[in-house]
Design goal:
By secondary structure, this protein is of the alpha+beta class. Helix content is 35%, strand content 21%. The protein is built from 6 helices and 10 strands; from the N terminus they run βββαβααββαββββαα.
Length: 217
């Protein structure tokens, strides 16, 4: 719903933890890159899945068709997950230093995906945003380019325009904080699903996983 033209009130806001699975990190054979012209989401998805399958990663569902971001809850099913797939996911997570982040969503609509140079250790940035009370524009860290934020009229205003921000979304800080806590719970579930694979690797791996996910030790 909108209070003014171009401003959408996020009354069902979600922060979805996602892992970024880059095709080049998994492909073991040459295949046509679907970017000669602008690929359709379906073309990208086929290419992406084929590359992941080279490394034995199958059955994952991306955040949206055409995306390389996968919600943590879609990566491993604790009831049916192949232990070897859990090991591959864990290895990728460590090698990529937790590449991914939190996707800003309204219900199932994806508003902002994590961007360049951001990782899963992004929870505190959104927790900070939920407590922001300054009327001046400031950065909400989601990678490059930034999302901007400022506080006005008991709502946090967000803009996807870095240079000349214009309010695009408004969200209650309490609702955003609830989304942060829900995301933290999902990350805890993900850490638990990775725990057996982390135990096999041994050493400090379990603690490293929690650090990569932005969770307390």
């Amino acid at each position: 719903m909108s209070d003014s033209p171009g401003l959408t009130v996020l009354d069902r806001v979600r922060l979805v933890p996602v892992v970024h699975l880059i095709p080049a990190n998994f492909a073991t054979q040459e295949r046509p890159f679907p970017f000669g012209t602008s690929p359709t989401p379906e073309e990208w998805d086929r290419y992406w899945r084929d590359c992941l399958a080279d490394a034995g990663i199958v059955g994952v569902t991306p955040l949206r068709l055409g995306s390389g971001h996968v919600p943590t809850r879609n990566l491993l099913d604790p009831k049916t997950a192949d232990p070897s797939q859990a090991g591959r996911i864990l290895t990728h997570l460590i090698e990529s230093r937790g590449e991914g982040g939190l996707a800003l969503c309204q219900d199932d609509e994806v508003l902002v995906e994590p961007r360049c140079c951001v990782d899963l250790n992004n929870l505190n940035d959104w927790r900070y945003a939920a407590g922001y009370r300054d009327p001046e524009w400031s950065i909400t860290w989601v990678g490059h380019p930034y999302v901007m934020m400022r506080f006005e009229g008991e709502q946090l205003l967000l803009s996807d325009e870095e240079d000349s921000p214009t309010p695009q979304w408004a969200v209650s800080p309490d609702d955003l904080l609830h989304a942060v806590r829900r995301a933290e719970s999902e990350l805890e579930d993900f850490a638990e699903m990775l725990r057996p694979a982390a135990a096999v690797m041994g050493g400090d791996t379990p603690a490293i996983v929690r650090s990569l996910l932005g969770l307390p030790a």
